[in-house]
Amino acid sequence: MRPWFIAPVAPSAVLASLLVAACGGDEGPRATDGGDGTDAPQPDAPTPDAGCPTGTPDYPLLYPDFGADSPPLPSGGRLDGGLPAFLWGAATAGHQVEGGNRASDWWAWEQMEGRITGGDRSDDGPDHWTHYERDMDLLVAGGMNAYRMSIEWARLFPRREDFEADPMRPDVEALARYRDIVRAARARGITLMVTLHHFVSPIWWLDPRAPLDERRAMGFASDRAPEDLRRWADFVGRQFGADVDLWVTLNEPMVLLLAGYLVGRHPPGIVYEPGDELPLRVVRNLIRAHAAAYDALHAADTVDADGDGRAALVSVAQHLRPLYGLRPCSVRDATAARRLEHLNNWVLLDAIVRGDLDGNGDGDLDDPGDVRADPALVGRADYLGINYYSLTLVDGSVPLSDLIPGLPLETERRTGLAHTDLEWSIYPGGFRVVLEEAWRRYRLPIHVTENGVADATGALRGRFVAEHLHVLARAMADGIDVRGYFHWTLMDNFEWSEGFCPRFGLYRVNYESPDRTRTETDGLRVLRRILGEGRVTATLLAELPPYGAPSVCR
Ligand code: IFM
Hints:
By secondary structure, this protein is α/β, with parallel strands linked by helices. The chain has helices at residues 94-97, 105-111, 128-141, 153-156, 160-164, 172-187, 212-215, 225-240, 253-262, 278-300, 331-354, 400-406, 428-442, 461-477, 522-533, 538-543; strands at residues 21-22, 87-91, 146-150, 191-197, 246-251, 313-320, 323-325, 384-388, 392-395, 446-451, 482-488, 507-509, 518-520. It has one domain: TIM Barrel.
């Protein structure tokens, strides 16, 4: 079988509107190649008259009845033993909100010509580094009781020698500031979930300015990555384990792969070339790095911060999305969609939950390099962290190697669904699809570690929140074990290669004001009302205007 990385993974949060996930695969020749060496189009080729229309959604809409009240949602209040009944939170990532993360690969990347839309740089951003007390107040004012944050490796260890020293020599000011942030949350009764690696690395670990051959041996491309992540996790677990029980090792590892190693939109900026083994190595190292960090956190964090009897619960935050064939009548599109779903959604989770590593992603475990029930991997997830945003329509007729130079191709609008400022389709039914499938496969408790919408004008967020929580309530009533929901995100922030244009915040940030004032959005008010009413009511849904026209970021 052709190695899986030849097929593009599903569009990431970063790239969702850019990429028609495509899969040349083995089953057919390229669309421009008749298979007999001629250029006759295949029946599946994306020509207007191919008898295989685009734009006719046959994917399951699976909308619940938004005309009726949802089943009840759990409250964020305390149970008898003092534990929160459910975690209602917002998620952030250090580099996106803190500002000033100068010793990182991303900081360097932002200074490079043409990397970020509009030439934006994270700079001081929303300056959470200064305003964390206020931000924790805002979280509570929004009716929430939980906060997902990341601790930035580059801030604590701006120099390699300090990371490798024994004992390790963290930047004491940064360590003190993270302690303050953690204390500010705990003082307000906020439960913390902490991410160890949210796309950003110290520049000494991954330098996007280095020549290509050096970048190909740095970061997750290096076989040292698992040991470095183990060391980092051990440090953070020992420093913060008394206050934190919920851990995320890696945020969206498959997005990191796609954006960094296939399409080159994130550091290290590598664009895949056919036959290159590098992406395979990166996946293997991501999986082994997660497992090493999982073990280190369990060893280092022995304090049960919330009194539930467990000192550490560790997972990844995996970006899941339903994938459907672009053309309803195309077998090739459907086959490609199934293959890509396996790769994007399940290969990594299968490895860390079951220990089954499908090394070439062909869907079986029979090839050299495939591993079954590897004791070094199996059982390395205590819950499933799921990031949900949208769906992908898969064009099976276009091989990735042709797509990459030509990015972007646009499919997101073809669904006919409303779409966000980043042109991602709004598809609450897909939330049910991924929750259900994740639960069916692994039977692990779930935290929704991200769910949100780019919406600069307020035309979308209220309804988006209401519809997705309606779906969540129904899924839970049907027996899916969800323990927490973290909205992405608390306040507007730096959206990677898209800069500051996309606004995902429950609070809008005024970047012109010296203290970066935050203002409630309608989405925040809707969230607070739903939490107050304990369900999504039909009355609320009837009051909310239909999705308005998005503003556009590119
Ligand atoms: O901003 C990102 C986040 O860092 C990872 N998940 C998707 C979000 C929206 O694109």
